[in-house]
UniProtKB/TrEMBL annotation:
Basic residues bias locations: 78-90
Protein name per Swiss-Prot or TrEMBL: Mitochondrial mRNA processing protein PET127
Ranges of Basic and acidic residues composition bias in the record: 91-100
Native source species: Emergomyces africanus
Any one biological process term the GO annotation gives: mitochondrial RNA 5'-end processing
Regions that span the bilayer: none
Length: 770
């Protein structure tokens, strides 16, 4: 071996190389060291992958490859070691040559030999991009390397891809952040490539929420002594399952049926676009966009996916014995979000898109149960239709709101309940949570009425089951609503439409622990402010292209290795908006009449055979069986969804037939992709962790515009199809065809029999109240 090594020093082309000798010789030449060290890496590093749809649908600039790295000022003065590290991190083989002068000795030939072997091992196919650079006398010229792009997907054009890659390569590397950072701060935003890409930096330390002091009616407090649950972690049973002692008034054990509640006595919900007071307040404070907590949270959820790089949920709050493999957000929560930006008097109002909304019993039950939890029994009974002392609409207390500004946004949040002993403002939200058998089948909710909650832990019929489903389906929306309203948390009442089982107060730190992995709310607060600010930038770009007119937006963050958000906006008239919003109005009214006036319909003979479809959950509050004070956000929140990958291949824009599009590709559209880079205290990170108020979070964002209208419309159409598939269900998707539904129905039947036995025992022993 020693003889072969010695021979290799004198004859390096012989096939054997002594590494120590080679290092000693090549180390004398700094310009060759990086190439040698990189060539010794035998394990290939996978290059970062991005969304193929984005790369395939963005046009390349003439003369530039997708993976080409542009020349940067002062590149010739970089230290060889740093350049080697950069090459190693990108996962590309070093195939540099040293043109310009012939070096004496054998080190150059050996370096070339090993580099070529390394390229073969990694399977890389590189080409040299020759460019002229200023070189000092006696120093070899520096060449720019071109890395191979991934093979394009079939039937997809490669337009617009270079813009995203160009913007990524132009970002300063982590090791050069100290040198590049002052330049970035001087130019907060820059536009390049003929306004196809736009980049900038958002700093968490420069953002803040500004509350507006607006006097309103007093906010009610909890009744029946329920405030005890506010200051005790965990669940409060309405009735102790072991001793059968009621912790609260047994009146709560029986929920007033929706057909007996007078909903006409309640205040009508006012959307952002119809709130003239909100618009006037925005004009007075110089704000451009207005929205409510319910209309904004679905879009802010997708900004959470983008900024947190699809942070995994923290399910450590449930017991180890809870066997459920799903650890991601539900499919419906991941669906694309759509909103309307309605223009009037210089202000844009954000309204939720109700194209796929439908009515169900939970929409009504949430409103009545909110009154139940905040009123004494005598006052609540006045809302019963048969009451002789009915509540008149004029006597109902008007709603009270919290108003908060952030940038150009003015946000409104309705206040449900208040307790001065809670931290901060003392406000909290009321949520009524139906059991899983009801949420999963609102069309035939009567089949799940027997489902009971018996224990604290367990996969079925437990508070743990409902808490786990809230983590996956509702905590993100709940936490965003709490932050919009500057509240402390949420008060949850668990029920099966007929009976309340228990109560739980979930504070904002507890929700953040499940969503962000920490109880310090600094991370969630910073992400919320950055999300609103980034949304502000997006709306500014869209309204710049289509000024002073209403727009329909779609937002979708794709589950790719490098998260990327699609944003689409198309101009719409008020007539088009009303047509979309009222598309299911007749069906909703028919379902409402069936639920609220069954006796009248039965007498008229209209109820028989009335098989109006009530599809599974149509607004996020409705499907989650929570208070519907601000309805119309998203859909049902629980389904047997255990995979992270999206079903189907609806994102294949190449499968779109332009003849089938509702709008021709010639119609103007705003389409862009957003990518970001997170930095915490100046260091690049995938997502912030263990973040405190002393840390600084910067978000470097890049907007890449779609220049090809046909490609933009194709991807937009695919996004709309994904939303439709997630928020609607086929008529033939019946309970008999679903094993998961059959299991819930069986559990409900067993629970109904168990409840009858418990009622008989209670009749014999009597009712005991704490």
């Amino acid at each position: 071996m020693l003889r072969r090594s010695l021979r290799s020093v004198t004859r390096p082309t012989g096939g054997f190389v002594c590494l120590s000798c080679l290092v000693a010789e090549v180390g004398l030449r700094p310009h060759a060291a990086p190439s040698f060290r990189r060539s010794l890496t035998t394990a290939p590093v996978n290059a970062e992958s991005t969304n193929p749809s984005v790369i395939a649908n963005i046009s390349l600039r003439q003369g530039q490859g997708i993976g080409q790295i542009p020349a940067s000022p002062g590149s010739g003065n970089k230290k060889p070691k740093k350049k080697a590290n950069k090459q190693k991190k990108s996962g590309k083989a070093d195939n540099d040559k040293e043109p310009g002068r012939a070096n004496s000795g054998t080190g150059q030939n050996v370096t070339r030999k090993i580099a070529s072997k390394s390229v073969k091992k990694e399977g890389a196919h590189t080409t040299a991009a020759k460019s002229k650079t200023n070189t000092s006398p006696g120093r070899p010229k520096q060449q720019h390397r071109t890395y191979p792009p991934p093979p394009p997907p079939p039937r997809l054009s490669r337009q617009d891809g270079a813009s995203i890659q160009h913007s990524r390569h132009n970002r300063p590397a982590a090791r050069d952040s100290s040198a590049q950072r002052p330049v970035q701060k001087q130019r907060e935003e820059q536009t390049s490539a003929g306004k196809r890409t736009h980049s900038g930096i958002l700093e968490s330390t420069s953002l803040s929420l500004v509350p507006l002091s607006i006097e309103g009616a007093p906010v009610p407090r909890l009744s029946y002594g329920l405030e005890r649950a506010l200051f005790n972690p965990g669940v409060y049973h309405l009735q102790d399952p072991r001793t059968r002692v009621y912790n609260f008034d047994p009146y709560l054990g029986s929920i007033m049926p929706v057909k007996e509640f007078d909903f006409s006595a309640l205040n009508e919900y006012i959307t952002s676009s119809r709130d003239d007071g909100l618009r006037e307040l925005a004009i007075r404070h110089g704000k451009k966009y207005i929205g409510s907590s319910s209309s904004m949270t679905s879009v802010l959820s997708h900004f959470h996916y983008l900024l947190s790089a699809w942070r995994p949920l923290n399910t450590s709050l449930v017991s180890q014995g809870f066997s459920d493999s799903a650890r991601n957000f539900t499919r419906i929560l991941r669906a694309p979000s759509a909103v309307f930006l309605r223009y009037k008097d210089g202000v844009y109002a954000i309204d939720a898109d109700k194209e796929f909304d439908n009515a169900n019993i939970l929409m009504n039950l949430g409103k009545s149960m909110e009154k139940l939890l905040t009123m004494p029994t005598e006052e609540f009974e006045r809302y019963r239709r048969s009451s002789t002392d009915k509540v008149t609409p004029d006597a109902v207390t008007p709603e009270t709101y919290h108003y908060t500004t952030c940038g150009n946004f003015l946000m409104r949040a309705q206040l449900d309940a208040h307790d001065p002993r809670l931290p901060g403002t003392g406000m909290f939200d009321l949520k009524t949570r139906a059991v899983v058998s009801i949420r999963m089948n609102t069309k035939h909710y009567d089949r799940g009425l027997g489902y009971q909650i018996k224990d604290r832990f367990g996969k079925w019929e437990s508070f743990e089951r409902e808490y786990f489903d809230m983590i996956r389906a509702a905590f993100l929306k709940y936490s965003l609503q709490v932050r919009v309203g500057r509240m402390d948390g949420i008060f949850v009442a668990f029920h099966n439409i007929e009976r309340i089982f228990g109560f739980q107060y979930v504070s904002l730190p507890e929700m953040d622990l499940a969503l962000h992995g920490q109880t310090d709310i600094a991370l969630g607060d910073a992400e919320f402010q950055l999300s609103v600010s980034l949304w502000d930038k997006v709306l500014a770009k869209a309204t710049e292209k289509f000024p002073n007119q209403s727009l329909r937006f779609h937002f979708e963050t794709r589950e790719t290795q490098i998260p990327c958000m699609y944003v689409f906006a198309e101009p719409v008239t008020e007539e088009q908006i009303d047509e979309i919003q009222n598309r299911n109005k007749a069906e909703i009214e028919a379902v409402q009449k069936k639920l609220l006036f069954p006796d009248e319909l039965e007498q008229a003979g209209e109820l028989e055979g009335g098989n109006t479809t009530v599809e599974e959950g149509t607004s996020l509050q409705a499907a989650s069986s929570e208070t519907i004070t601000e309805p119309g956000v998203s859909q049902s929140d629980s389904e047997p969804d255990v995979t992270n990958s999206e079903e189907g291949s609806a994102d294949a824009a190449a499968d779109v037939d332009f003849d089938d599009l509702e709008d021709p590709p010639t119609k103007p559209i705003f389409a862009m992709a957003i990518t970001i880079q997170n930095r915490v205290n100046g260091k690049p990170v995938e997502r912030p962790n263990s973040f405190t108020s002393k840390d600084k979070w910067d978000v470097e964002y890049t907007f890449t515009m779609f220049n090809n209208p046909e490609r933009a419309w194709a991807i937009y159409s695919a996004c709309q199809r994904r939303r439709e598939l997630s928020l609607s269900f086929d008529d033939d998707e019946t309970i008999e065809d679903n094993a998961y539904q059959l299991l819930l129905q069986k559990i409900s039947e067993q629970g109904r029999a168990w409840r009858k036995r418990q009622d008989r025992i209670e009749e014999e022993t009597g009712t005991i109240v704490l």
